[in-house]
Amino acid sequence: MANGSRHTTAVVAGALVLLGALASCGTGGGTAGPSPQPSASAARTTGDSPHGAAPSDAAGSTNDLSPTAAGSADRSASRCRTAELSAAVGRMDPGAGQRNLPVVLTNVSSRTCTLYGHPGAAFVDAAGGQLGRDPKRTPGAPATVTLTPGASAWAGLSYASPGVSGARAATPAALLVTPPDERDPLKVPWTDGAVPVSGNASSVFLTVLEPGTGP
Predict the structure, then answer these.
(1) How far is the C-alpha of 131 from the C-alpha of 186, rounded, in Å?
(2) Helices vs. strands in the chain: H and E counts, helices first
(3) What global pTM score does this model have?
(4) What is the DSSP track for 175-201?
(5) CA atoms lying within 13 Å on the CB side of residue 43
(6) Which of 80, 141, 145, 167 could pair with 196 as two cysteines, CB 3.0-4.6 Å apart?
(7) Residues 146, 112 contacting (CB under 8 angstroms)
(8) DSSP 3-state of 87
């Protein structure tokens, strides 16, 4: 009877050992338990930051403006406003079927201000309706033009003579000139005849501003 009891005890102990081994194998496999989840910081990419930009290094970041941004800020603070300027159209210089005129902006204020880039321009009729499309900006290297009180800057306005190009023409009542980065134009009476407004060779071109009143 004692031998039978010892035999039963041995069988039970062996079974327990076998069950423990099986349990140990089950938890060590890649599919038996739930896989670990990535942390929020690991899942975040540069695409999650605003505009897709990589997060900046807080320790190395500064609030200083870059040279480009600083230059833009300086120009914005010092630029000539429409109310500080007068506009005029200089003498036409015709040649080889081309008409060339300087569009002149003059500082009529008591402070020094700056102009940079191309002015805006548009031909209008007596009712204020625009004739033709806006002039195209010719390629050029813009530079800041500093205008002391009474000083001027000019941009070249050019187009093919309608009588030569065959473009449809109209005679404007005025030319609207808008200083760079401004919204309000200056109105200049137009006295130089017909301009091309549609059809072939109807484009009008405008250069960047330079110091002075023209060539």
Answers:
(1) 16
(2) 4, 14
(3) 0.66
(4) EEEE-TT-SS-EEEE--S--EEEESTT
(5) 5
(6) 167
(7) yes
(8) strand
